[in-house]
Write a structure and sequence with these properties.
Layout lengths: L1 H29 L5 H13 L20 E3 L3 E8 L9 E8 L19 E3 L6 E2 L12 E3 L4 E4 L13 E3 L4 E5 L12 E3 L4 E4 L13 E3 L4 E2 L15 E4 L20 E5 L6 E2 L11 E5 L3 E3 L13 E3 L4 E4 L13 E3 L4 E4 L3 H4 L4 E3 L4 E2 L7 H4 L2
Parallel strand pairs: 3-4, 4-6, 5-7, 6-8, 7-9, 8-10, 9-11, 10-12, 11-13, 12-14, 14-15, 15-17, 16-18, 17-19, 18-20, 19-21, 20-22, 21-23, 22-24
Antiparallel strand pairs: 1-2, 2-3
Length: 377
């Protein structure tokens, strides 16, 4: 019996050895590996970003699941590769996403050596320094550096990345004028530049960005008037120009933006003007025209914006009564008409509303004795 057991044990060992050898040969012949030069570049890039695992990057990076995770949507890591070189053995990194990792390094110029890279997303870190011009050597489709401490101007060379569809640089310390070269980015759909220190005017070349769907420049010290060419951005769904120090009036060409769902403009200087024509914008959800030196009455057609959730027309020079059509806005959560010259009686539907409403500092006259507190206004 012992002899039989020994034979069985020996066969088992031989089988397992054969299986291990087969697996080794299989891995060796079909392994999906990064080129050694790309590994060295990645190690340099991650080291300069001050990523704690920079030294662990190896040729098998594309097969390692440890680099991909998502913690409550705030802390994310993802490295994507393309291994379809014909033999499926040589890989190249195409996407680097490291969000919310508190990285305190700089943006390395060596990014420009990762020639297969298409997406860089380093959102919500503490990266400092400037944006390297070497990024223009890449065929990027998306560059997101939101929520860092980057400073200096946007390199003109960024305008040479003809494949770029998304440029997200919000909430940094960037400054200077916007480079006119950005107007060459014909594929660009998202240009998000809010919460920086930009100055100057919006370049005329931006009128060429006819694929824009989202444009945001809140909170910088831009000068000049809102450009007439915004009427070229007919695919736009969101336009944010709050607190920019720009001049009015809002150009009449804004009426061309029929696809808008979010329009936020505030704090314009200059002469007063009539309410802009927004009649065709049936899908509007957020409409903020605050402190824009707008005169005249509130258009009745606002009540036809059936999806409207927020209406803020505060700090203008609006006159007349609140249109009865506004009571048709069943999705409305916020109505702010503060500090205008509106007159007449406060409509009963407002007095009965549970929404967040502020009508203070107007010239309303009403026989109703109900207090603002009771009316939840």
């Amino acid at each position: 019996m012992g002899f039989v057991f020994s034979i069985f044990k020996m066969v088992s060992v031989l089988f397992l050895g054969f299986l291990a050898l087969h697996s080794f040969i299989e891995f060796g012949s079909n392994a999906q590996l990064l080129p050694e030069t790309e590994v060295q570049t990645l190690q340099t890039v991650f080291s300069k970003l001050q990523h704690p695992n920079a030294a662990t990057i190896s040729r098998t990076l594309c097969n390692e699941s440890s680099w991909t995770y998502n913690i409550t949507g705030l802390v994310q890591s993802h490295i994507a590769c393309n291994c379809s070189d014909g033999s499926n053995t040589i890989c190249h990194v195409t996407q680097i996403l490291i969000k919310g990792h508190n990285l305190t390094g700089v943006l390395p110029s060596e990014f420009g050596n990762l020639t297969h890279l298409q997406v860089i997303d380093l959102t919500r870190n503490y990266l400092n320094g400037s944006i390297p011009s070497s990024l223009s050597q890449l065929s990027l489709t998306s560059l997101s550096l939101l929520g860092n401490r980057l400073s200096g101007p946007i390199p003109q060379e960024i305008g040479d990345i003809s494949t770029l569809e998304g440029l997200v640089l919000e909430d940094n310390l960037l400054g200077g004028s916007l480079p006119s070269n950005l107007g060459n980015l014909g594929s660009l759909s998202r240009l998000l530049l809010s919460a920086n220190n930009f100055t100057g005017t919006i370049p005329e070349s931006f009128g060429n960005l006819k694929n824009l769907t989202d444009f945001r420049i809140d909170g910088s010290s831009f000068s000049g008037k809102i450009p007439v060419f915004i009427g070229n951005w007919t695919k736009l769904t969101r336009l944010d120009m709050q607190g920019t120090s720009m001049e009015g009036p809002i150009p009449s060409t804004i009426s061309e933006l029929k696809n808008l769902t979010d329009l936020r403009i505030s704090d314009l200087s200059g002469t007063s003007s009539a309410f802009p024509n927004l009649e065709g914008m049936k899908d509007m959800e957020e409409l903020v025209l605050r402190n824009c030196v707008i005169t005249g009455s509130i258009p009745a057609y606002i009540g036809e914006m059936a999806s409207l959730k927020t209406l803020d027309l505060s700090f203008n020079r609006l006159t007349g009564q609140i249109p009865e059509t506004l009571q048709n806005l069943v999705k409305l959560d916020y109505l702010f008409l503060t500090n205008n010259s509106l007159t007449g009686a406060v409509p009963g539907w407002i007095l009965d509303s549970d929404n967040n409403i502020d009508l203070s500092y107007n010239n309303f006259t009403s026989s109703s004795q109900i207090s603002c507190q009771q009316a939840k206004v």
